[in-house]
């Protein structure tokens, strides 16, 4: 008899073991199939680029400094060194090197590891639930729902959410360690509980409420609480213990949770991720939290129209969703309490869900989201436990066979797997992700902003502009939105709109160095050099190491005749970026202004070696060659500058970008000047016509610049040679030059000490003024003529 009983037990044990292996294999295959699309997914512009791809501490892999950074950084709004080290390991093992020597990360590797951690949690959860309860089918159903529910795609398919899958894996490991400790209490087994809990929190502090979950597990299925009704699901009897002992076992875990919680609060403050009560008042937070509980339950049952971000309603919350959420909370809680003795899994599962969501329910708001699908990754286990055991109890009561119930459950899981497969495809790239979010959520300022940024990065400024404009309409108080639209308008040549948006950016964030830089670029393009110097100077104060700002400031200073300051600014750029082509070209222009032509040529040559297709360097080279009388070579250099600039303009236009027309017009004029001096008069005229087609007012602008350069009160700001060239080009580019152009040419000639030519040109200006009846200026012109006849230059002193 004993032998027969032992044989039966052995057979049952073998059957259970085969069922467990079969169940694990099914779970693994289902999980891998449902998440198959992630193998083809790229990184997305929601933290992936900032925290992984362009984060040198991650991208350069494991190193001593990288490990030190991982353990001391609050980057990403958490203290999670284990997550950083995991990402660093991926970068170490699965990256290549670009031509510039920078690491190129393989997104497939990062997504694959996320999936493997998720699959590991699924298998571990199945085993833990079996060990906790001894029940095969409900345990399988819990693990399958966890594996395949589409709300979990965000945690698995988003590379940055490595912290989620790691944290939950070690959380499930802690449950397993805790069951072993309960079966045979001891210091060694308890230390495994403590270590696995610590590892979970080192990945992400989401499971900070896990000690409370252990108390729930003590109630059911372990049945350790000293009250009637909390019966164990286990085959072997687990003794009840006092509530004091239950709490005493958990105090080290609560201490660890408190320490990590404090570090999380510090991290949020350091990173500026705590949204103040002024922005979202407490009543709005409570309303959103209550509504979110209801929405989480609804989306669990009906997992359609899921999005990467649901915008927070702030003060515009509606009573309906809050009322519905309140009913869900009160109704399910009341039902679970009433059924606690007969169906303890309802109380445990529901409280697991509610309590585990508390850290992320929005009472301490840390972002723009009202809720997030990834927040359910761990709490869902509680709901799935309540659901699975309720179904397992209901099946025999309604007369449905176990096979039919299992088949029905598999069909549900296959349906969820299909939804997960589809949801994972939305994470393929940033555009797909945010367009889907916009389709699902309707007006969504965050989705519009990210789509605008995506099109900006692709150089599609025309497509970016409406998205960024809409983002501002929906949420006007975000400086990033105004700044991005300002940059787009600047690129499109809409300088008025760009100045408006960048000014608004600086009202919201006065210390934004890039906004000051871009506003300076707007002023530079519109010819307001004084304001450009002010804005770019402020940008340099805020971001001293920005080479592009130093170059732009140098250009503005040079245009204002402040050559020594311009030279210093270009040198500062070279200190930041050695052999920077823009800085070398700027220095060459300063040297040209100081008549150090041969040195200037060497600078332009160095710039072209570094960047062979640099139009500004070709243009500077042409000017330098022209001043040495090498007109044919000068024309060739200017021709190359025009070709490069025209090609750049064409490529930009194909992407909806409008390059400044006056810059291209200037290049055509320089080419026309060299051609004219070389005897190619007709070809020169064609270039001047091309300049006028690009920018009709260029002769007037050249005239004003020539006058300023020839007559500046500060001798250091004068450049009569450049003034002569500009005035000559203005003369050559129009059929009948105005008196002002002749005057500018006369002043330049006087500055070059060619006083006879200056006097002759001034007389021509007087004749032109008389013909056009400009009587009011003739007296001043007569005075200047007398100066030239006396061999004296005119200065605006």
Walkthrough of the structure:
There is one protein chain. This protein is an all-alpha fold and 797 residues long. Helices cover 72% and strands 1% of the residues. It is built from 37 helices and four strands. The strands form two sheets. It has a two-stranded antiparallel ribbon. The chain has a two-stranded antiparallel sheet with strand order 3-4. The radius of gyration is 36 Å and the shape is elongated. The termini are far apart.
SSE blueprint and pairings:
Blueprint: H1 2-34, H2 48-53, H3 56-59, H4 64-72, H5 81-93, E1 95-97, E2 103-105, H6 107-133, H7 136-148, H8 153-157, H9 162-183, H10 187-203, H11 210-219, H12 243-271, H13 282-301, E3 310-311, H14 319-338, H15 344-357, E4 369-371, H16 380-397, H17 402-425, H18 430-441, H19 445-457, H20 461-474, H21 479-491, H22 495-508, H23 513-525, H24 529-542, H25 547-559, H26 563-576, H27 581-593, H28 597-610, H29 615-627, H30 631-654, H31 661-677, H32 681-694, H33 698-711, H34 720-733, H35 739-751, H36 755-771, H37 775-789
Antiparallel strand pairs: 1-2, 3-4
Helix pairs in contact: 1-6, 1-7, 1-17, 4-5, 6-7, 6-9, 7-16, 7-17, 9-10, 10-12, 11-12, 11-15, 13-14, 14-15, 15-16, 18-19, 19-20, 19-21, 20-21, 21-22, 21-23, 22-23, 23-24, 23-25, 24-25, 25-26, 25-27, 26-27, 27-28, 27-29, 28-29, 29-30, 29-31, 30-31, 31-32, 31-34, 33-34, 33-35, 34-35, 35-36, ...
